[in-house]
Amino acid sequence: MRWRSILYMCFIAIIAISFLLPFSSIASAETPSKQRVYDFAEILTSAEKQQLEELAEQRSVERETDFIILTTKEKGPGRDVKKFMQDFYDEKGLGFDKRHGNAAIITIDIEDPLNREVYLAGFYKGEKYLNDKRLDLINDQIVPYLSAGQYYEAFETFIETANEYMGIAYWISPNSVLFEWWFQLAVSVGLAAIIVGIMLSNSGGKVTVNERTYRDTNTSKVLSRRDQYIRTTVTKVRKPTNNNRSGGGGGGFTSGGHSHSGSKRSF
Hints:
Layout (H helix, E strand, L loop, with lengths): L1 H28 L7 E3 L6 H18 L2 E7 L8 H12 L10 E7 L7 E7 L1 H5 L2 H16 L3 H15 L15 H23 L48 E2 L5 E8 L1
Helix pairs in contact: 2-6, 5-6
């Protein structure tokens, strides 16, 4: 009877553990390891901050680069949005792998309602894969959301797009034709055609007759040759300018000496 009791207790323990494990895993998955959303301007709801924290946690682990959201409505005297971000990075020691390490930061400044600004920055690995040009492309996508007051959508787009760009070799432009579906389809079809052509060419007998077979090289020669230059035409086209962009900014160095890429816009 004793061994039956022991088996029964083991059975109850296994059921209890199996019942509690899913809840413990869910709780740990929904609790980010550290803070990555700093909403000092209070433009996000509690639910939105929680969702962005979870998304930032997931993407940060994937790329080993912290995706940081920073907002303010009071930068302090003598500081613009770029300087505010730089000082915050230095003071907090932001970074995925260490203090002052890999990071990608979006900073929103709404202190002046008539001149709201957004500044994107990448540090270390973030700087390598999110250079000024790539950050400009991300700004192109999020500024319409910011102008419409859709801050959550802008932050979500920043994290997802930056995560996507960090998966592309840093020397390739994210909007390169190499990543267009129609180009990849054309390359696939072209390769298939080449392979089929090679197979067909090798399926028949070897051709041994060519243009020299029936030509007498002793009597055949070029009788005359003439080169005639006609004309050269040069057409100039004025390079178009994009008047919809404002800001700029580029990267720089923090007071602590940390290099970063950057892109600034008004919205």
